[in-house]
Every structure is written in C-alpha cells, then in structure tokens.
Amino acid sequence: MSIQRKVAVALAATNHDRPEPGQLYNHLATVAITAFLEAATEQGWKLVPDKATEDMIKFGSEKERVGYYGAGVVYHTMLAAAPKFEVE
Hints:
By secondary structure, this protein is an all-alpha fold. It folds into 2 domains: 3-42; 47-88, no CATH class. It is built from 4 helices and no strands.
C-alpha cells in the first residue's frame, strides 16, 4: 500500500474515534503521522536525526576501515543505533 493511501485509510477510519473536544486536529495529526511512519517503514525508509547521536557515532566508529563498499555496512550499523521517532 502506498504511503498516501495508508494515510488516507487511517484518516478515514477516524470517523469511529471520539477524540476529546478541542483535540480533533491533534488526533488527526497523530493518526496521519503514525500512518505515514508505518507506511514509510514498510517501504524501507527510516526517519533519523539530522545529526548523528553519540550512539550512532559509537556504533559506526567501531567498524574498522572497510573501504568504499564497506560504507554501507557502517551506514546500516549507524541507522540501527538511531533513536526511534515516536508520536506523542
């Protein structure tokens, strides 16, 4: 399912939800963001911080010099250490 479709389906399903008065926009935003992140993750995308965290740098630097083709391994290792984005 495309990202756009997944967000649309999630928003359409909110008709059955009953958010607190005055919280409708926050509720819809949360539903849309959550659906977007789930769909993006299913397609292989990952939301990561703009600057690498200490854990990301630590995990990436633990790899020895691996050359051009090993950069993907380092990148994957750093992504694995990235904090997870959560909708509050």
